[in-house]
Specification:
Distance between the termini: 27 Å
Shape: elongated
Oligomer: single chain
Largest sheet: 3 strands, mixed
Strand order of the largest sheet: 1-2-3
Helix content: 40-55%
Number of helices: 3
Order of helices and strands: EEHHEH
Length: 82
């Protein structure tokens, strides 16, 4: 099983595009890029549910990006403990 976290969301100035940064942990034998691609393939459903939750006039187009910063932090922390 994997743990998926949204680490950051950056909106464009006109609020038409949202870059969503995702961190993926404990994916065992799964490549994090495969998991990211699965999320991207469900973008239409996710955007629809965002529209229901936001109750806004406009829902931004969403772009999912892989955030490796926590993985790098974890690797550095492991090295420091040795």
């Amino acid at each position: 099983d994997s743990i998926i976290s949204i680490t950051d969301v950056k909106l464009s100035n006109d609020i038409k595009i949202a870059d969503i940064y995702i961190s993926i942990f404990n994916s065992k034998n799964k490549d994090p890029l495969d998991i990211l691609n699965l999320i991207i393939s469900r973008k239409k459903d996710i955007k629809y549910k965002m529209g229901l939750a936001l109750k806004a006039k406009y829902v931004p187009d969403i772009k999912f990006l892989l955030d490796n910063s926590m993985k790098s932090y974890d690797e550095i922390n492991t090295l420091l403990k040795k």
